[in-house]
Amino acid sequence: MFPSNLSQLIGEKYSNALKDGHLHFTDTTTKKTKDAKSGMPYVLSYAPSLMKKPERGDQPERNPFEDPEPELTVLGDIADSNYRLVLNKFPIVAEHSLLVTKEFQDQKSPLSPEELYMSYQLLNTLDDEDEGKRHMVIYNSGPSSGSSQDHKHLQILPLPHNFNSLQDKLCSGKEHFLPTFKTEPLQSDKVSFAHFVVPLPESPEAVDQDLLAMVYISLLQRTLSFFQDWTNEQPDLQDRKGYNVLLTKQWMCLVPRSNAKAESLDIGFNSTGYAGLVLIKQEETFKKIQEDIGLIQQSLLECGFPSTAGQRSTEYQY
Ligand code: B4P
């Protein structure tokens, strides 16, 4: 599905786009840390210059994925020519790429089995265990998910070196299983927010469209049930519902979202935040977080829903 030298193709396209000014990389000050109470590992990325970046890129009225710049297009035809792989024009990590539909599709639409399989194949092609290179595919769906573009796009980004995320810790030593009404997905009982994780089979040969679709649907059912359950308390929630999908070669995770931004700390999250990769743009916010790392859990909860770890889905689902 993808050329075996994809990593090289992305690397070359990225270097040229950067050199010729087609891409705007924002450097960040990064810091690895951990919240003792929740046990959640974080990489904090502080980028005050992003405050100046307009929310929807340099041309807010334009759909950037309808006719992407050739200088950013790595692969113009994927999967019967229905998708493209393009470089992120405003990355904070090098070689951050996007898998976009050619025809307009809504970012609120669910992921298809084909899109899930393409994402897995991207990970399988780009990850390099010997070199310690891992990637994550993310899908920010719906207004509260942290997405800023409505044209359907998934993102693939390299993970920080030796980063062991909350989801990695949850899945460590666990075999793949399919959640049912008897078996719940994995969820940490120490973190504040609801999240549903399933370990994937170790062997890529065992992973196909059907398996990924079944895992996704089982997690999506649980994720969407929050919007039914919370409608009485927050009647406007139906209009701004959203969720994050996080996929690595080792696991899939879905997070139901209630808000794009935590007002208490003036910080926004997309999927990356729920893997512990926290982008901070405000100096004041960076200061507060360094004084009290627990504020991140509070903000992640403000943008999500309370954890349901230990509860059967029948207890919190319709
Ligand atoms: P969305 O799903 O709509 O939104 P987003 O990732 O939150 O992006 P946003 O633009 O709001 O980014 P933010 O300042 O918070 O994705 C749209 C994507 O398309 C974005 O990646 C955007 O950069 C890209 N894009 C826009 N116009 C484009 C064009 N003409 N051609 C190609 N691509 C275009 O964050 C800044 C960046 O850092 C984002 O890329 C974000 O994904 C990334 N990021 C945020 N937190 C991160 C973290 N902790 N670690 C690594 N990367 C992180």
CATH architecture: 2-Layer Sandwich
Please write the string of helix (H) and strand (E) elements: HEEEEEHEEHEHEEEEEHHH
In terms of quaternary structure, the protein is: single chain
Q: Approximately how much helix is present in the residues?
A: 10-25%
Q: Provide the low-confidence segments as ranges.
A: none
* Count of extended strands: 13
Structural class: alpha+beta
CATH fold node name:
HIT family, subunit A
Sheet with the most strands? 8 strands, antiparallel
Strand line-up of the largest beta sheet: 3-4-5-7-6-9-10-8
Name the CATH superfamily assignment. Answer: ATP adenylyltransferase
Average pLDDT across residues? 93
CATH top-level class: Alpha Beta
Ligands (ions, cofactors included) = BIS(adenosine)-5'-tetraphosphate
The helix tally amounts to 7
SSE topology:
Elements: H1 6-19, E1 29-34, E2 41-46, E3 73-78, E4 83-87, E5 97-101, H2 113-126, E6 135-141, E7 153-158, H3 166-171, E8 196-199, H4 209-229, E9 242-247, E10 251-257, E11 261-262, E12 267-268, E13 277-280, H5 283-291, H6 294-302, H7 313-316
Parallel strand pairs: 2-13
Antiparallel strand pairs: 1-2, 3-4, 4-5, 5-7, 6-7, 6-9, 8-10, 9-10, 11-12
Helix pairs in contact: 2-4
Bound molecules: BIS(adenosine)-5'-tetraphosphate.
What's the gist of this structure?
The protein is of the alpha+beta class and 318 residues long.
